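In full, the data.
>
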Amino acid sequence: MDTTSRAAGAAVALDGYLAADFPWYGLDEGWTGHRWLMQVGAGTEGTVDYGSIGHGDEPAARQYEGQDTRRFAAVVTVARRPVRRSTDGTGVMEATSACSAAWLAGSGLLSATWPGQLDRSLRQDWLDQQTAIAWDLADALDGPNWSSLSLPVNGLPQPFRYRESEYGWVLAGEAPGVLLGAYGRGISAYGLGFAAVGDIARYAEPRPAGATALGAS
């Protein structure tokens, strides 16, 4: 993708982030590497419910051919939503929770990493199977498949639930006003911290020429 196309795509993505009624979170100032906007998710009424911010190496069009050596972390911010009726009035939508953040982080990791030796024609079957597993794991956040991890949020220690797999790691917890999820590969989760984003528009700026994707962690 050329520079002009990337800038246009970032501007479109930024509109969604600016429409949110909750604060966005990313890695704190301990991370000095590249940051970028990923995508937002909206409810049936068009209200932004969640979104992700990437850090480190961005996905590439040919990232799955050969060995995947990318190093990245993504932070998923999820709005706190109460139980509410569906727009068609036929049922209710569950309240968001840390399990919601865990599910979004787990599915995000799967979308970003899949076995390089897997034939592309079989990818959807693999993704469907692993997504079902990720859903079950997220629904049992207090179960034995998760461990406890304390990480700083806005400079204060906050408990998270954490698990590793062959594809990377996933964690989920809470922050002031929102729920947090995160996933990554090639970067240790143990040295990370989270902070509210002061100016989300800065994340839409292109990476300066010659700048590295990775920073301190």
User: Anything to note?
Assistant: Residues 3-58+68-204 form one domain. The chain has one domain: 3-58+68-204.
